[in-house]
Automatic annotation (TrEMBL):
Enzyme Commission identifier(s): 6.3.2.5
Any one GO molecular function term: phosphopantothenate--cysteine ligase activity
Span of domain DNA/pantothenate metabolism flavoprotein C-terminal: 2-101, 140-249
InterPro entries in UniProt: CoaB-like_sf, CoaB_strep, DNA/pantothenate-metab_flavo_C
Enzyme class: ligase
Stated name of the protein: Phosphopantothenate--cysteine ligase
The keyword Ligase belongs to this UniProt entry's keyword annotation: yes
């Protein structure tokens, strides 16, 4: 099988020296890739600079990205160049990226100027004025290569990123697609319900649902949700990798 695995966590630049990222190490994605390789499959491993990676071999191709924009571009390229029998999208993709930043003084000055010209002081009118000011400031181009620290507060404007997984089924309708859902401090029922919603929304074959509070080193409780509602549970990264590989192989065999 020709397999694509995404792993690690994207990083979104604020300026040339600062960024927003997450704590994903890519260890689960690495374990999944190595399990596929051990079963004789070909793996494309799409990851980030600081994530762990499987050892180089003739059966693995490692591709590297940094931002969500990079990921979207690389995914579109890979999905147009190859047909993948299975895609395991375990990468922790940033929900938001930096649009611009402004010092506190810029916000207060802009608000004061707009409110000084205000004629209508009803709540709805004031809300509309504030909204317009925020929209104007938030869409300004970030010109500084390094944001000055000469302010007590820095306002960072974030814009919502596209959901990468949503493009996969459209571009590769026959692939066996495994999505991932990470929540924190929820019940198992809620975890399964949210994971099932993710599965249906993105037309996945499986979703691996996990709770951050149950992840400690190699101990990693994961619930693999099937498209028919069946669930299977594993308690370590290695067991999760084995569970995913076995199910992708079975589903792939049924597709062929």
């Amino acid at each position: 099988m020709n397999i694509l695995v995404t792993a690690g966590g994207t990083s979104e630049k604020i300026d040339n020296v600062r960024s927003i990222t997450n704590h994903s190490t890519g260890r689960l994605g690495k374990a999944i890739s190595e399990e596929f390789l051990a079963h004789g499959h070909q793996v494309t491993y799409l990851t980030t600079p600081y994530a762990v990676k499987p050892e180089q071999s003739e059966h693995v191709t490692i591709e590297q990205i940094e931002t969500t924009e990079d990921l979207l571009s690389k995914m579109n390229q890979l999905l147009s160049e190859q047909v993948f029998d299975g895609i395991i999208h375990s990468m922790a993709v940033s929900d938001f990226s930096s649009e611009t930043s402004i010092p506190e003084e810029a916000l207060t000055t802009a608000l004061a100027k707009s409110l000084a010209d205000q004629q209508d002081f009803t709540q709805s009118a004031l809300e509309e004025t504030v909204k317009k000011v925020m929209e104007q400031l938030g869409t300004q181009e970030q010109k500084e290569k390094k944001i000055s620290s000469n302010t007590e507060r820095l306002l960072l404007f974030l814009k919502k990123n596209p959901k990468i997984i949503s493009i996969i089924r459209e571009k590769q309708p026959t692939t066996v697609l495994v999505g991932f859902k990470l929540l924190v401090g929820v019940s198992e029922n809620e975890l399964i319900n949210v994971g099932t919603t993710t599965l249906k929304k993105n037309q996945c074959d499986f979703v691996l649902a996990n709770n951050l509070e149950t992840i400690h080193g190699e101990k990693h409780r994961g619930i693999l949700i099937h498209s028919d509602g069946q669930t299977e549970t594993a308690e370590t990264k290695q067991a999760i990798a084995q569970l995913i590989v076995r199910n992708v192989e079975m589903k792939g065999a049924n597709h062929s």
